[in-house]
Design brief:
The chain is an alpha/beta fold. The protein folds into two domains: 106 residues, Beta-Lactamase, CATH 3.30.450.90; 274 residues, 3-Layer(aba) Sandwich (Rossmann fold). The protein is 30% helix and 28% strand. The chain contains twelve helices and 15 strands. The longest helix has 14 residues. It is globular and about 70 Å long. 40% of the residues are buried.
Amino acid sequence: MGYDGRFSGDFFTNMAPGEVLSAIIERAADLHVSDLFLLAEETGLRVAFRRMGGIETVAALPLETGRSVVTLLKAEAGIDLGDRRRPHEGRRIQTVGDRVIDLRINIIPTLYGEDVTARLLDRKFGLRTLEQIGLTRIELNKMQAMLSNPSGLILVTGPTGTGKTTTLYAAIQYLNDGTRKINTLEDPVEYAVAGLRQSQANTKIGLDFPELLRNVLRQSADVIMIGEIRDEETAATAVRAANSGTVVLSTLHSPVAAGAVQSMAALGVNRYFLSNCLLGVVAQRLVRTLCPKCRVAYDISESPDTFSDVQSFLEPGFGTYIFGPGSCEACLQQGYSGRTAIVELMVFNKALRQLVAKGCSSEELQTFAVQQGMLEFRRSAMVKVAMGVTSTEEILRELPTDQLGLDL
């Protein structure tokens, strides 16, 4: 069983393990899957894809075939075949047509065998520009203005799997015009990009972000991208670099844009130094985009105030319809054909910096930023709905109710 039945019935009968594995990876690449799962069960191996944030089973392999496929994948990824009791990591490259698919593989022992999770990085489709990540025209202008500063700290926040790294790469690509020396510190390096000086953490030899960052500061970088700020030393060093003439970009875990300040403070960063260098925070979530070929428009002209809060942010001609999913072959009857970011973009001006230095709460920072023109998640989501980018059902599925102003 699968999205279109391709893997149904006896599709894999008489196939060698290598052919089975290639067919699964090629199908995952065709569907722009983010993660491939090979899940060990009592009677066989379940194959599942994560696509547009959701997981769907696409095939079931017999026990022996499944074990052979996992063994082959481990061998090609350079993983020890004899040790099935410990977690392992590896990497495999596969060419699909004119595309290069990079599989980052993690294996963990479970009750019935080894479970495999492979993150698929498509070098042709994985990288996006700032114009493609989901910013409104006004937000795009603000983001570009932030990135044009000669120094300062820009943070991208949100839970795991919300596209933070994609946004970082989009920002770095905007800056990567040959006039700046750009160093990245990643774990692992997601995409090899010409013009960047990319370094990868290696905890097995004690090479972590703090160690890399201390040394890259001696490399005379104009821009430093840190994959994630997750310890006190990295946070303090990033702030020191941003205060010393370098543009620093990184990710952080916080639910809303204002929460990034509290997260940095919790890591021991001095609020005064943070307020001096903080340029902005991008908080984001990912929602599925409606299929443009089958989306359904519903006239709401009898409710003219539906989008009154965000009318000034809409392009001409929008605001009189609300859109929902349809069904067609182009989107495999799902009604959705991709994903986009719902964004809170908090740009720090003098007044906001003063609030940070004073130790104001996240709620106070958030309220003040909205008064200064920031689109919080609720209104940012309304813009996407009014523009026909996504549906209200998708917004309610992906965004917490407290961030939508709902009391359920």
